[in-house]
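JOB MANIFEST
job_type = single_chain_structure
chain_count = 1
residues = 497
[input]
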Amino acid sequence: MTQPVSLFIGGDFCQSDSSEWIEVTNPANNQIIAQLPCATAEEMERAIDSAHDAFASWKEVAVSERARLMLRYQQLLKEHHDELAWLVSKETGKTTVDAKGDVWRGIEVVEQAANIASNMMGETVENVATDIDSYSLIQPLGVCCGITPFNFPAMIPLWMFPLAIAAGNTFVLKPSEQVPLTAMRLAELFEQAGAPKGVLQVVHGSKAQVDYLLAHPIIKAVSFVGSVPVAKHIYHTGTAYNKRVQAFAGAKNHMVVMPDANKAQVINNLVGASVGAAGQRCMAISVAVFVGESNTWLGDLAQELAKVKPGAWDDQSAGYGPLISKEAKARVLALIEQGKAQGAKCELDGSHCEVADHPDGNWVGPTLFSGVTPQMSIYQQEIFGPVLVCLEVDTLDQAIELINNNPYGNGTSLFTSSGGAARKFQHQIQVGQVGINVPIPVPLPFFSFTGWRGSFYGDLHAYGKQAVRFYTETKTVTARWFDDDIPTGPNMSIQLR
């Protein structure tokens, strides 16, 4: 029988008493690899209470000791890097290279969490008035929670709980029900690093468990990454319960190609950025905007995309893995058919892709559309598959207008050899993360992940300094001390009588 996935409550890995279970499958063959419990209300309450109890002592732990915990943790993550990547591949279908990148980007955030002390510094002004000083203190919120998606089962949990805990909070993690195994291993290693009992909890389930977290009065802050409808629900529900919320949503990332760009660089980067990870990443390039004569490169792009073959995680020749589920594959195939029906030209069709050794996997081959207009479904919706749609414009100004009229604002890039074009683009574009001759401009952890507009609901973003501000509150102290209160010592002078 398939092994049931444990809960992690109060520092103990325990089996759930739930009567509701979800099957976890390997996307490469759709075989069941685990049984996931939907945590009961009692188990959810126990996890939140445990985190609340642990917060009372954890917030008093010296910031330097919290940083040392993260140093130990990142070392364990590095030692178990390949094992974690194997788990990522097993439950997402990612290729080995892609899975290793998932783990490594998470480790980088943990390394930044080890630098927590410098990010917890307040500010001081002496003599704001006569003999009065003011200074600010950065203090943790309490119990925070994270709700994470399927596509980055290592990286995105590591965006959340290490920084929150390093800042003095405790944390309840609810990973995607499609990929729970990596999250459980992350929790095991965190315990081995010396985390006190109750500082981190891991619960499982679906919408009911998420709504329990959103409504619970002890939860002070909610971090989420996922689809637009769920992000809206989490943001509006969480804020209605007076919680701090950061909800990262969908995207439609454009790459603008200028005629003066390096053609080989453009094509190589477009191929990898569009179909890498089967297009299942919120920073994937899903729209190519060819400016002027660069549209003549479309044929070469189709030839290079056709060379990319999906395959199982251990196939070293595979360019990417399967989609996460049968339902995800069906949705992508439906959008491809809509694109054809609405008049786009399908230059390369991956609808009937097969992988010989894994006939039951959720495979979709590289797919390329030209002649796309902004009114088409394949432009308006986030496909989240290995599908690249191409539009043509005459000028850079038209490309900027096109992108700014799109409701999403996660990432965009411009390929050009013109410094003037790059300066104009990065200044005028209304997108949070901009790449210049870089296709997927995900910032390193000392910055923050700064999606805009319809790609983000909230104020403070993930990791970097903004995340520390999200997981903390500022207290300002104004203090006055009187000279008359300065104690005087004993009078040692000779007294004359």
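[summary]
The radius of gyration is 26 Å.
The mean pLDDT is 94.
exit_status = 0
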